[in-house]
Amino acid sequence: MPRLSEVIAALDALWPPERAEGWDAVGTVCGDPDAEIDRVLFAVDPVHEIADEALELGARLIVTHHPLYLRGTTTVAADTFKGRVVHTLIKHGIALHVAHTNADTADPGVSDALAGALDLRVTGPLVPDPTDPAGRRGLGRICEPAHPETLADFAARAAARLPATAQGIRLAGDPEALVRTVAVSGGSGDSLFDAVRAAGVDAFLTADLRHHPASEAVQHSPLGLVDAAHWATEWPWCEQAAAQLDALSDRHGWDLRVHVSKQVTDPWTTHHSSGAPN
Predict the structure, then answer these.
(1) Which residues, listed in sequence order, are joined to residue 183 by a DSSP beta bridge?
(2) Using omega within 30 degrees of 0 as the cis cutoff, is the peptide bond preceding 16 cis?
(3) Nearest to 99 by CA among 191, 38, 8, 233
(4) pLDDT digits (tens, 9 = 90+) for 198-213
(5) Is 278's pLDDT higher than 90?
(6) Does residue 158 carry a pLDDT above 70?
């Protein structure tokens, strides 16, 4: 049975912390390096529901994509919701490790998992990492569907393949436009419009598209926009990451039991609409 420090070393080899953005907060949040680890839980968000799930499973390590304390803190008091997570984890000997922007740009990374969930063939990164001589790492991915399809059909496939959320899938652009190339980016992607336009793709699937950037994008070109829930675009990474750790466990003879949380921790819970606009 491996120690936490051994498992973390393996995870850091997959997603080196030095490749995270300077503003990010990745790495181990809590946990005893000498503690033995036999069960691991992957999830998107380090919320209390995930801590409770780890406790019920008997997991000794949680790996999440989102940081618990992205902007720092001056307290871990248990009367704050984040502090309560920390208290629960430490009380029950559960470690927490975060791979965020270092997992976004990895090879394979978050957007590879998103592309895989949609059966898209990745042709390269949307924003290449200049430090990668192989040209495979970077933010977002440029992809091709197995065959050309309408934007409406592509959006419907995204709705069917990604985890269901209250938001569902929003579409901007001509539903009958033909999609031959797609850019995808897990998580918030409207800062990438310049790169998307430069790539010359037919559609862009991401999350958290704001009104003004989206409006300007569709006015600028016939680019189709497919907007999914943030959580839904990043959840496929959990399955990909769990498979990577499974492979490492087999290689090292660790016999880890690796789980992926299927709890929907997207903050939006219901959706109301009077119908699609004319």
Answers:
(1) 142, 204
(2) no
(3) 8
(4) 999 999 999 999 999 9
(5) no
(6) yes
pLDDT on residue 277: 62
Tokens of 155: 């959006």
User: Pick the residue with more confidence: 277 or 14?
Assistant: 14
Element (H, E) at 139: strand 138-144
Distance CA 5, CA 13 (A): 12
- Between CA 169 and CA 257 the distance in angstroms is 33
Q: What angle do CA 256, 259, 260 make, to 5 degrees?
A: 150
Q: What angle do CA 46, 268, 157 make, to 5 degrees?
A: 100
pLDDT of 276: 66
d(CA 127, CA 168): 27
Q: Cα(93)–Cα(32) distance, rounded to whole angstroms?
A: 8
The one-letter amino acid code at 123 reads T
Q: Report pTM.
A: 0.97
**Residue 274 confidence class, pLDDT cut points 50, 70, 90:** confident
Name the β-bridge partners of 98: 27, 64
68, 46 in Cβ contact below 8 A? yes
C-alpha 173/C-alpha 43 separation (Å) is 33
Contact 59, 261 (CB under 8 A): no
Residue closest to 122 by CA, chosen among 132, 109, 103, 131? 109
Q: What tokens were used for 78?
A: 């248990």
CA 218/CA 221 separation, integer angstroms: 6
Q: Is the separation of the CB atoms in 118 and 183 below 8 Å?
A: no
